[in-house]
């Protein structure tokens, strides 16, 4: 009953795809970069195959589709980073290996995740501290002061605080759900601190991110995930609407008082006015997507280097340029499958804690994908966050592997264990 | 809770699907923005072209008119003839775009058209820079340079073509420009970037009498034998047409060789608007020419607005008639080629580096008149050079046929025209010379035409 043959078959297909990419890079520019891209595709494939074999031996019932999907996305990211600049490729490969290890650790150490609900306030505290650290000790990279310099690499606590946020909210909301529902029934009751406290707390946290770390995208994801989880837990539209209004008020205040928020909005409204200045990046992104056409220029044949920060925030534009509209939609479809799978996992669970945690992680992932892709395509203002599993960046990659590990944990755990 | 989760899943999935749709709309948006002209140029286009070694442009004997040589960041374009062939070759600039054949033949020069598909695919997979196709022109670089030299310091144009094939042997416009620095000339009041040979719209003056004469010979053979008394002016409906002299009694032949306006005004009126315009259209005036470079089609007053005075002045190439020097050369070519105008062309063919090649074959453009009418006109044009207004075009040992024109215009002195062909018995070249505001065609344009014919027949 625990056969994982289908998983390995899908991993093999993914491997053929990334191997083709690596081979194309090598043929265009024979050299160590191309060889390493082929090696990276092989290493990622072998890593996931190993996990699959180990899980089969143990007889675990993890979802069969999660690892093929994330290996597809991670492989795409690593191949494109080798194409953009092999120096990024090497590092990303190292992070992918660490990520796979982190995923394995997550499935091993956190398999009985229900006990985590007891530590929810600890998670909240740890999250706040982690967010405060960069404000005092952090450095500014790419416009956001959300990084800690750890010597060998830069560490972005907010990527991991995302996970703590879901851990906390899942525990908190399940515990207080009954209470909230009751409060919702009494039309004229005064809202209590227990009800509005979390909303204000989240709102302040988002504003803190926005004002002190200048990290608009992360603030948006945190607040969006919070509202999504509250909605799933309580379905109280009044609360959601209040939250949205509060968020808009905060955004308006930020627009008026925080310079870089105003700049982002101005770029979004009319990048052509500052085409050679602040609007340059988004225009180049749009040109890249346009240049890709339907089938793309082919791997290595485009000009993604015209887009500043193409390896992190704008990697999706480079993928669209070289693999075309079909490639871009392909990536989106893989993300949609991952989101679908995540919600599927949530819906097969009976206990509310598992449902809410799986759905929370999935909503977080889906929101992040939506916000960054909408940003690089000028559907929304650009907010500067990573494209999960694909963008260059160790913190983001490892955090997302842990997230995937949690989805796997939830997918197999026997209810109530 | 389950229902809420399901609902949120739908919202997120629909949101991501909407991004897919939006992605497909981006090219529409970019197209809209770039069309409005407000956009920053996409550096990808220039960078992509820089990766390709553009093909060379060669004259009919293989002399180089334009080529790409390796330079840092791609290739650098060279134009060995400089300004002399600038209006044919055009320019190619990352900043100012392209003009001339560099623009109209860009796809062939870049190897996007023509060339071998298999080789292109191999280059793409292996990331090798593409190589464009070399194009060979009908132009003779020596004659082209000579024509440019004769025009130096003047404003005007020279067109030389082979009347039997339509091959353009030289096409010069003056003032010229340096194809490496087109930007320098954009605001120049003399408009050096304008290709006067193809885009200059000039009143033709008396060279247009070739068309009127063809109509008379075809439709009014009786009138061609009559004698008309020229009093130096012709009054039509209260409008007076002045002649350059009082020619006295002239027959058709004398009227043509002396370029008598009174006689030709009368011919026009006798033909009537219908017959006259039929002949004008047969010569292709006002008809767009399918050429490798953009050509002004010419202008003639339409039948509905052609009143008496306009008809009389149109018959002598004034009124609202406008032609280009290329078209003027085609008039002479029609007479030289037994009434048939060959399709003019500049690009003889191209050859790809992969061995593929293509060669163009001459085609008929239109039949302007019967061979008999052409033969009769040829005699008249020989007389123009032998004893009429075009004597300055005569060459020893070669019979030159031609027609002069001195076109009145609102900008000062007459534009000087000469169109002709040689040798008259077996024409090898047809020429048109136009000099803006240079005075009479016989004294200003004819001597220049003579030198060009001499050089072309060498």
Shape of chain B: elongated
The rounded distance between the terminal residues' Cα atoms of chain B is 96 Å
Order of strands, widest sheet of chain B: 3-2-1-6-14-15
Instruction: Decide which structural class fits the backbone of chain A.
Output: mainly alpha
Low-confidence stretches of chain A: 185-190
* The level-1 CATH class of the domain at 143-346 and 363-457 in chain B: Alpha Beta
Tally of DSSP β-strands of chain A: 3
Structural class of chain B: alpha+beta
As a whole number of angstroms, the C-alpha radius of gyration of chain A is 21 Å
Number of helices of chain B: 16
Number of helices of chain A: 14
Please identify which CATH superfamily of the domain at 143-346 and 363-457 in chain B we are dealing with. Answer: DD-peptidase/beta-lactamase superfamily
Amount of helix of chain B: 25-40%
Radius of gyration of chain B: 27 Å
> Any idea what the CATH architecture of the domain at 143-346 and 363-457 in chain B is?
3-Layer(aba) Sandwich
Protein name (chain B): Peptidoglycan glycosyltransferase
Pfam family, one (chain B): PBP_dimer_2
Transmembrane segments (chain B): 7-30
GO molecular function (chain B): penicillin binding; peptidoglycan L,D-transpeptidase activity; transferase activity
Describe this structure in words.
- The complex is a heterodimer of chains A (417) and B (458).
- Chain A has helices at residues 5-28, 32-58, 66-84, 86-109, 120-137, 157-185, 193-212, 216-234, 237-257, 259-269, 280-292, 315-348, 352-376, 394-412; strands spanning 139-141, 144-149, 154-155.
- Chain A is mainly α and 417 residues long.
- Chain A has a 3-stranded antiparallel sheet, covered by helices on one side.
- In chain A, helix 3 (66-84) runs antiparallel to helix 4, helix 7 packs antiparallel against helix 8 (216-234) and helix 7 runs parallel beside helix 9.
- Chain A is globular, with a radius of gyration of 21 Å.
- In chain B, helix 7 packs antiparallel against helix 16 and helix 12 packs across helix 13.
- The mean pLDDT of chain B is 91.
- Chain B is an alpha+beta fold and 458 residues long.
- Chain B has a domain at 143-346 and 363-457: Beta-lactamase.
- Chain B has helices at 2-36, 43-51, 86-89, 100-104, 106-109, 117-126, 141-151, 196-199, 209-219, 221-225, 252-257, 261-282, 308-315, 325-336, 371-387, 441-457; strands spanning 57-58, 64-71, 74-78, 92-93, 97-98, 134-137, 156-161, 168-174, 228-230, 233-236, 239-242, 248-250, 340-342, 347-351, 357-359, 364-367, 401-409, 412-422, 429-435.
- Chain B contains 16 helices and 19 strands.
- The chains are: A mainly alpha (417), B alpha+beta (458).
- At the A-B interface, helix 1, helix 8, helix 11, helix 12 and helix 13 of A face helix 1, helix 2 and helix 6 of B.
